[in-house]
Write a structure and sequence with these properties.
With 227 residues, this protein is α+β, with helices and mostly antiparallel strands. It has 7 helices and 14 strands. It has 2 domains: 124 residues, no CATH class; 81 residues. A 4-stranded antiparallel sheet has the order 3-2-6-5, with no helix packed on it.
Length: 227
């Protein structure tokens, strides 16, 4: 018998969708998927925003009460949580109002990664919009993503924190792929990036999964592993 749950843990979602944790984190950090936490009896103010003629916005409370249930996290808080493993939060999102915040002398809520949940409604929304469920892969999920400086990269389900030269190599290979010239001379790319070594394996030896990020044709040419 299947229990009709109102929410699910992240391991349950990873198993249902057959995606990596890195991909799920990407979806949440980029606000494509809203994650939630369960709270009990917290003093919560909910309300709406109103604007002035000068373009300023201010909060207009509509309810203050002791709240038990699910509160949604902002994308920037999810980003911080996965980098620090824990956060203290006072502001949340909720389907019931434009904002939700703790009031009075309430201490911020301590949230750990293991506390994260996904509402049933959010799961169903995402599956309907992407047209997948079960073992299929979300069609909107990018194979490759990178921060502006290319030092934080996700590719093929793996997350990489790159050094400056490694980041320049990945940037150059990414730009080449965009030009339709994916295969590039490894020595030329490394030289341009300022590397003293002209061996790709030496430059990326600190990255255990680097071959999931960069492919070789066995003849000195390399390209990003973009599937």
């Amino acid at each position: 018998m299947e229990i009709e749950k109102a929410y699910f843990t992240l391991p349950e979602i990873l198993d249902r969708w057959s995606i990596s944790e890195a991909d799920l984190i990407y979806l949440a950090e980029n606000d494509k998927l809203r994650l939630s936490v369960r709270v009990f009896g917290v003093p919560l103010e909910q309300g709406d925003y109103e604007g002035t003629h000068e373009g300023e916005h201010f909060r207009v409370p509509t309810e203050q009460s002791r709240f038990s249930g699910l509160l949604d996290l902002y994308a920037q808080d999810v980003f911080q949580l996965f980098r620090c493993s824990e956060v203290h939060l006072s502001d949340f999102r909720t389907p019931r109002a434009s904002y939700a915040t703790l009031y009075g002398e309430a201490d911020p809520i301590f949230v750990m990664i293991g506390d994260l949940l996904l509402r049933r409604e959010e799961r169903d929304r995402f599956e309907a919009e992407t047209g997948f469920s079960g073992a299929e892969t979300p069609s909107q999920l990018p194979v490759f993503s990178a921060s502006p400086d290319y030092q934080d990269v996700r590719c093929g389900g793996h997350q990489f924190r790159l050094g400056p030269i490694q980041a320049q190599v990945v940037r150059a290979l990414h730009e080449a792929a965009r030009r339709g010239e994916a295969w590039q001379s490894g020595k030329a790319i490394l030289s341009t990036a300022g590397s003293k070594s002209l061996k790709m394996s030496d430059v990326f030896k600190s990255q255990k999964q680097w071959r999931s990020l960069i492919e070789s044709n066995g003849r000195g040419n390399y390209r990003l592993n973009l599937g």
